[in-house]
Design a protein that fits this description.
The chain has about 180 residues and is α/β, with parallel strands linked by helices. About 25% of the residues lie in helices and about 30% in strands. It has a single domain, classed as 3-Layer(aba) Sandwich (Rossmann fold), CATH 3.40.50. The protein is built from four helices and nine strands. Helix 3 links the parallel strand 3 and strand 4. Helix 2 crosses helix 3. The structure holds adenosine monophosphate.
Length: about 180
């Protein structure tokens, strides 16, 4: 079965499916709400498609994503790319032995966890998330994967908040986004 685009559905203007919510979750943050995109079958399918397509010939073995919104795209991309999926989670969620890294977000500090056997040394991993803001989350995921010997193929986002220059925390990485807002 070859890799082909969902040509039967015209590509929608995906930016129209991102809802801006001011002052959420705290004052001063303009939150990019992806739920209108998630509930639209065509927009969702095209989003997964456009996030997967650049990596189709890149021997991606695993897609790694942070809960919770990263999971929505990451698992779908893994299926599309014929890869496995690795969940990165918040404290107290993973049952097996973990590795962790502390990182700072646009509006708080946090720790993320990964099972220590989630990525075998040398495995090729694509990192993904719905939105890149400061880049702290993605940089932490990259750090964890490399700590256990994984090879980060690249980093893919649906939405890049370009003004925040989050890419600067991912120097030398192949970083792609479908929408720059
Ligand atoms: P960062 O680590 O700053 O790049 O933040 C990225 C993570 O926080 C992603 O998992 C996003 O889902 C979430 N996030 C941060 N800022 C926003 C925002 N303005 N709108 C929507 N999600 C955001």
């Amino acid at each position: 079965m070859g890799y082909s685009r969902p040509v039967e559905m015209a590509k929608p203007d995906l930016a129209r499916y991102i809802r801006d919510v001011p002052d959420f979750p705290v004052r001063g943050i303009l939150f990019r709400d992806i739920t209108p995109l998630l509930r639209d079958a065509t927009a969702l399918r095209w989003s997964v498609e456009l996030m997967s397509e650049p990596w189709r010939d890149r021997q991606v073995e695993l897609v790694a994503a942070m809960e919770a919104r990263g999971f929505m795209f990451g698992a779908a991309m893994a299926v599309r790319l014929g890869a496995g999926f690795v969940p990165l989670r918040k404290e107290g969620k993973l049952p097996w032995r973990t590795r962790s890294v502390k990182y700072s977000l646009e509006y708080r500090e946090d720790v993320l966890y990964m099972h220590e056997d989630a990525v075998a040394p040398g495995q090729r991993v694509l990192v993904t998330d719905d939105v890149i803001a400061t880049g702290g989350t993605a940089a932490a995921v990259v750090q964890l994967i490399e700590q256990v010997g994984g090879t980060v193929v690249g980093v893919q986002f649906l939405v890049e908040l370009a003004e925040l220059e989050g890419r600067r925390l991912l120097p030398g990485r192949e970083v792609r986004s479908v929408l720059r807002l």
